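Input (structure):
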């Protein structure tokens, strides 16, 4: 099973220009709102016509601008799950599921019963969409897609309308269902956790272009650019400058990091996940840790309290060189985010704005790219 996409389409704010080949499994497309994710799906489904390019699924040409081929949606056998599920309001659950089926009544009934069992919709057969919860509506929409037996599934932010608890339940169900689906699935999302849980491969996008494409675990471990790093959860990013083989300066933070491995001369950025930083407020620990490598005196800028942890914004006390590089305006971030579990900070000590602290960062937690 393979899907080949190479398309170009001029949009209002940018040009959508993507090229990729997929294999069996779920490919997640991750990017900020308005970056072209949904437009890519709509082009594959035939709901939007690219200006130029080619789309081929398992050898069947959906679109070829040079050969003037542009199959209508109904001839592409594509299952498209819209964000709002697009159920027919005047049809029951059973009628919605069989809406796209063209076969005998006996075959329709058999297929509908199969889907109702698979998606756990028993007892809802005669209900209308407005009588269903958001999760039930999603399962009906998904049952309708699978009953149609599409050659490729396109899921456009399938969990965006659901609360967090229901979202997690349905993600487990969807993962189980799709484990038996031996065809291509493209899933659009701006939720990195959703993508990581469900997809085997990932495409990251910005303003109509693909930034990185590879296995999900590899991309999360080794992002190749600052936008991808930001998308997968790196809150702390800085322009970087190599000082020598074992030292690099984070220009945004005015901090110099030391490494045990030689630093590439090609690095331009440095990133640290907030959970990869160890923060200390105890004065004795502060003085002791300052003697170690990659330990820095910081000042607490702000504290956001959550039920089980603190998200703490800190800033270097070493002074500000005032980096005026034009590029820094894009990634400008003088402060650093840290996460500390509540049990790690003694209640009588606490932590508040203006406090002094240190942060220590292991070399393994520093991303260079």
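Output (sequence):
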């Amino acid at each position: 099973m393979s899907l080949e996409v190479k398309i170009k389409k001029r949009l209002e704010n940018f040009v959508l220009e993507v090229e990729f080949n997929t294999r069996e499994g779920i490919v997640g497309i991750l990017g900020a709102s308005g970056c072209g994710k949904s437009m890519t799906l709509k082009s594959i489904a035939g709901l939007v016509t690219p200006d130029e390019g080619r789309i081929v699924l398992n050898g069947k040409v959906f679109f070829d601008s040079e050969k003037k081929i542009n199959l209508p949606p109904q001839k592409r056998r594509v299952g498209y799950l819209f964000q709002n599920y697009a159920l027919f309001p005047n049809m029951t659950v059973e009628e919605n599921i069989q809406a796209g089926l063209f076969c005998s009544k006996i075959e329709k009934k058999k297929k509908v019963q199969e889907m109702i069992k698979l998606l756990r919709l028993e007892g809802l057969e005669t209900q209308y969409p407005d009588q269903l919860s958001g999760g039930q509506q999603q399962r009906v929409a998904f049952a309708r897609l699978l009953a149609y037996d599409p050659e490729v599934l396109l899921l456009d932010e399938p969990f965006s309308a659901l609360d967090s608890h229901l979202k997690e339940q349905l993600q487990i169900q969807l993962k189980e269902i799709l484990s038996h689906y031996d065809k291509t699935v493209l899933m659009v999302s701006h939720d990195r956790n959703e993508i990581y849980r469900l997809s085997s491969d990932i495409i990251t996008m910005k303003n109509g272009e693909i930034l990185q494409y590879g296995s999900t675990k590899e991309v999360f471990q080794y992002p190749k650019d600052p936008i991808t790093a930001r998308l997968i959860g790196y809150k702390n990013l800085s322009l970087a400058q190599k000082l020598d083989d074992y030292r690099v300066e984070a220009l945004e933070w005015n901090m110099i990091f030391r490494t045990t491995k030689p630093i590439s001369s090609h690095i331009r950025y440095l990133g640290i996940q907030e959970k990869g930083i160890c923060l200390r407020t105890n004065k004795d620990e502060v003085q002791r840790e300052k003697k170690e490598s990659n330990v820095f005196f910081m000042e607490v800028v702000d504290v956001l309290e959550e039920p089980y942890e603190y998200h703490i914004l800190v800033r270097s006390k070493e002074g500000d060189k005032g980096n005026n590089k034009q590029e820094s305006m894009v990634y400008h971030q003088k402060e650093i985010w840290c996460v500390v579990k509540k049990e790690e900070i003694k209640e009588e000590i606490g932590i508040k704005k203006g406090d002094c602290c240190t942060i220590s960062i292991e070399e393994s937690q520093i991303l260079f790219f």
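Notes: The radius of gyration is 25 Å. Residues 322-330 have pLDDT under 50 and may be disordered.
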